[in-house]
Structure formats: structure tokens, C-alpha cells
Hints:
Helix content: over 70%
Structural class: mainly alpha
Shape: elongated
Number of strands: 0
Number of helices: 4
Distance between the termini: 17 Å
Amino acid sequence: xxxxxxGGANLNWMYVVIIVMVIIAAVGTLLVGMSxxxxxxxxxxxxRTKKYMVGLxxxxxxxxxxxxxxxxxxxx
Length: 76
């Protein structure tokens, strides 16, 4: 095996770690958002919900783009 193949194999585990971290973050965000305490409400939070949702959506969209790019790199 050449150096390029070994170097690629050494990087693959890092891609997996990043993907797992993004999935854990997404699940954690959903769990917090659906928690009983969060549903009970905080008037100040409710006023800023749209701002938070736009930010979270942008972060997850960017994460999906990055994950897709990493998968393409891994599979090629």
C-alpha cells in the first residue's frame, strides 16, 4: 500500500468522529427542545424562538453540507 492509501485510511476515522458528533448534537437539541421544562415555557425564550430556530437550522444545514462533502471524499 502506498502512503496515499494509508493517509486516507488514517483520516477516515476522523470523518466518522465528526459525523457522530453532529448526530449526537442534533439528537441532544431535539431532546432539549421537546423536554417538559422547555414546553412549560419561558416568556423571554418564546419571544426569541424564531431567531434561535433560524440559527439552529443554519448550523444543521451547514453540517449536512459538510457531512455530504466528507462522504463524497471518503467514497472516492
